[in-house]
């Protein structure tokens, strides 16, 4: 016997996890498509050189790479992708002439990282990315927030906040303080604010060292932190920042761009209550150059951002001399599912068909098969229990998986061409309904059972 | 610069391929769910021992395995899955106590085989499998054909044939001819009939050698072939076989089981015209023990079977002593898409949103953003062109991708709060429509454009 366990850091997804996951992915696909994003797929296996090119992944990610070899292949040539961004860059570099711009793509797929296994950390996980390539338009910037908003609403998240910033505002502020050369170190320190707290960030800021001169003084570190801490709120934050920073050209450009995005989001009907400005929001990745955004769920901030992204100047410089600016974001499917599960926002049903058609011992199996086929033809999912075991066990199967109704035809019902309709939640049973009214009765009962709050 | 090519035998799927593919997968998921199949997902990476256990894969498949290693991992421990059946067996062995039976699962995912690259052969491809585990019910057998039928109808395949057989009929016939010991070799030879022709199959049959005695004589080989060639047709084939083979217990059992399946398919409303019997249908895999089935598309038989499967006695004997019979099938997504593409049955559009909202140079970008948001709120996909480039170029973008309508607001329209609605197929344009009737006008125009046969 071989042990049926999965390899370390990997996992099986059973139906109870997959059903809400598929529902969420279907919602995301509808949202992406509604904005004109088109799907692409790239192989899980890429050439090693594509994945390890300069700047493709951080040193940490490259250490975690899974190499792939087969008989007849040379070692070191192939590997599993660790994100969907490097494959997108390669894809766009290869195909952009046929595709043209703007190119709006979404991609949903597994990525692989050989991280040390830990609770909630897996070596294979799914990313959901969408990007608009080949434009510097503010419409595309605003749309990135619109898509996140629509996707979270479609997923059933009640309240959440999309936090926006523009890289040039912070850059401009640092330049105005004579700290431009240190911006990378400052951004990385600020990025940790919610994780390690203000005192630790102050310490990191003071340890920042300019290669060509001194680092931040304690006073400068406090000023940076003060700028960030007063730079959080609604649109009024932009106004006060214009008053203090408006004379710096980079900051002024960033503030104006962010204001345009807010105005477009108003036009798009995204409620201001779901938007926030945070002038300290940095997002670790060095390649963002314009707006950056992240998303937290109200009351569940401890889960971190569930959807993040930003604008970049040049997507595919590793693969082409053609300059391809773009903007996009990634929705953390598994993180969002874990959050919604903990919050109790996911249905608990592990059934995909709402109706179980029982196979009564001693009756003709053609009857449940025929009735179920009629329900499906009317658009109602119906599962036939395959074996004529005692009815109680069949109903137990339905209750435990989350079927909502059972259709039952015993020998008497068969003789009279009627059926019994049992609500598996309330255990109420309507008896002796005529076969001719099957579809209507089941439809009405399903609508009624929705109001009882049975899992959808 | 790094060359942006994919590795040998792998491929990128651009939007023109992915859009019909996603549509087909969504249809399959709806069909699977409508019968009560639930989704599961297993990792792409399995432990090597799971994949290479005795009987898990054929020698050929095992030679093609992709090994996976990461820093700190030992070589030879991990590999990419080559099908979804071995992972299903492992999954079921591990989880069956929580899951209970019957367990009806579907799985859609990439599998990997290091085959020699050739036209139409890829080292990564998608399988769509569904199986019912833990029952020997004829209802589940019939349902396998029902699901294939519903899936192909949902995919838009006009006419196709699901061919059925039962392993015990052929076994019984061979036993009645004193050829029982040779059945494996005979089945493998018969499986090649459509590929290599009858003369070559006769030759293979004559070369079949019984380990404990002689092989087939030329006469026996001809008799086997005659049985197979007269055993094709509708339900009448079962009747004549009962007359000649009914005294053989195995054959009688197989014939009765197949008759039951046909009766249940009648009850389910699957048209007899889409079903065929072929008593020579063997399906190469040794582990089928009951019904076997395959599916060809009328007029496109050269593509081979697009959906195949059968019943097996014991799914997970590698991993558990628990005996788990089941029945299931696999739909060849990529083969079916290639066939439908060649037949011209796929829409040609590479757009996911039917409406393009142009951004007229010199107008407020908030207007297209607002109008598009209104369309989406009404359930109509709408893509805003991100940049105010000359209108002709924007309309060219829409026409080339397959958007059906364009909504245009120039400076005059902005002043009068009206818009122009252009049909991108006919180039007809309705001018000066009021913003207040946006949703209704677009909805009507979309319905009208459907009848023009514009790509969906």
Strand content of chain A: 15-25%
The name of the CATH superfamily of the largest domain in chain A reads Bira Bifunctional Protein, Domain 2
- What value does the average pLDDT of chain A take? 92
CATH structural architecture of the largest domain in chain A: 2-Layer Sandwich
Shape of chain A: elongated
Which CATH C-level class of the largest domain in chain A is it? Alpha Beta
The protein's oligomeric status is homodimer
Physical arrangement of strands within the biggest beta sheet of chain A: 1-5-6-12-11-10-7-9-8
Q: Compute the number of helices of chain A.
A: 17
Give an overview of the whole structure.
The first copy, chain A, has 456 residues and is of the alpha+beta class. Helices cover 42% and strands 20% of the residues of chain A. The first copy, chain A, contains 17 helices and 17 strands. In chain A, the strands form 3 sheets. Chain A has a 9-stranded mixed beta sheet. In chain A, strands 14-13-15-16-17 form a 5-stranded mixed beta sheet. Chain A has a 3-stranded antiparallel beta sheet with strand order 2-4-3. In chain A, helix 14 links the parallel strand 13 and strand 14. In chain A, 50% of the residues are buried. At the A-B interface, helix 1, strand 1, strand 2, strand 3 and helix 4 of A face helix 1, strand 1, strand 2, strand 3 and helix 4 of B.
Question: In terms of topology, how is this protein built?
Answer:
2 copies of one chain form a homodimer.
Chain A: H1 15-34, E1 38-39, E2 45-47, H2 48-52, H3 59-63, E3 66-70, E4 78-80, H4 85-99, E5 103-112, E6 124-133, H5 138-155, E7 160-166, H6 167-176, H7 183-190, H8 193-196, H9 198-207, H10 218-230, E8 232-233, H11 236-245, H12 249-267, E9 275-278, E10 288-297, E11 307-312, E12 326-331, H13 333-343, E13 355-357, H14 366-377, E14 382-384, H15 391-401, E15 405-408, H16 411-416, E16 418-423, E17 429-434, H17 438-451
Helix pairs in contact in A: 1-5, 5-12, 6-12, 7-9, 9-10, 11-12
């Amino acid at each position: 016997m071989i042990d049926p366990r999965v390899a370390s850091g990997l996992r099986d997804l059973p139906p109870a996890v997959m059903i809400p996951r598929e529902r969420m992915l279907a919602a995301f696909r509808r949202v992406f498509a509604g904005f004109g994003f088109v799907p692409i797929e790239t192989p899980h296996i890429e050439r090693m050189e594509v994945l390890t090119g300069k700047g493709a992944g951080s040193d940490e990610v490259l250490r975690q790479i899974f190499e792939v070899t087969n008989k007849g292949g040379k070692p070191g040539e192939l590997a599993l992708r660790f994100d969907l961004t490097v494959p997108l860059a390669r894809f766009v570099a290869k195909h952009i002439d046929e595709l043209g711009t703007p190119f709006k793509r979404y991609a949903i797929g597994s990525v692989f990282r050989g991280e040390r296994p830990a609770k909630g950390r897996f070596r294979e996980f799914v990313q959901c990315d969408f990007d608009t390539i080949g434009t510097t338009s503010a419409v595309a910037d605003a749309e990135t927030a619109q898509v996140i908003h629509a996707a979270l609403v479609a997923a059933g998240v009640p309240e959440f906040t999309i936090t926006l910033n523009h890289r040039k505002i912070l850059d401009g502020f640092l330049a105005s303080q004579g700290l431009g050369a240190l911006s990378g170190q400052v951004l990385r320190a600020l990025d940790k604010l919610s994780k390690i707290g203000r005192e630790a960030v102050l310490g990191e800021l003071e340890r920042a060292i300019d290669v060509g001169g001194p680092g931040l003084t304690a006073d400068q570190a406090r000023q940076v932190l003060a700028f960030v801490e007063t730079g959080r709120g609604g649109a009024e934050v932009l106004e006060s920042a214009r008053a203090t920073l408006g004379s710096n050209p980079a900051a002024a450009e960033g503030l104006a761009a962010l204001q345009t995005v807010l105005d477009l989001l108003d036009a798009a009907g995204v409620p201001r209550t779901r938007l926030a400005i945070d002038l300290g929001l940095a997002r670790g990745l060095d390649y963002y150059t314009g707006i950056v955004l992240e998303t937290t769920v109200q009351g569940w901030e401890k889960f971190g951002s569930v959807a993040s992204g930003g604008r970049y100047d040049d997507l595919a410089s590793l693969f082409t001399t053609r300059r391809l600016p773009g903007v996009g974001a990634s929705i953390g499917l598994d993180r969002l599912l874990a959050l919604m599960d903990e919050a109790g926002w996911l249905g608990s049903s592990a059934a995909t068909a709402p109706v179980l058609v029982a196979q009564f011992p001693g009756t003709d199996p053609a009857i449940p098969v025929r009735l179920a086929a009629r329900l499906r033809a009317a658009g109602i999912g119906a599962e036939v229990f395959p074996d004529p075991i005692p009815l109680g066990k069949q109903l137990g199967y339905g209750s435990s998986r989350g079927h909502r109704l059972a259709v039952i035809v015993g020998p008497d019902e068969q003789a009279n061409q009627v059926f019994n309709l049992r609500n598996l939640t309330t255990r109420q049973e309507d008896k002796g309904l005529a076969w001719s009214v099957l579809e209507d009765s089941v439809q009405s009962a399903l609508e009624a059972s929705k109001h009882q709050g049975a899992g959808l």
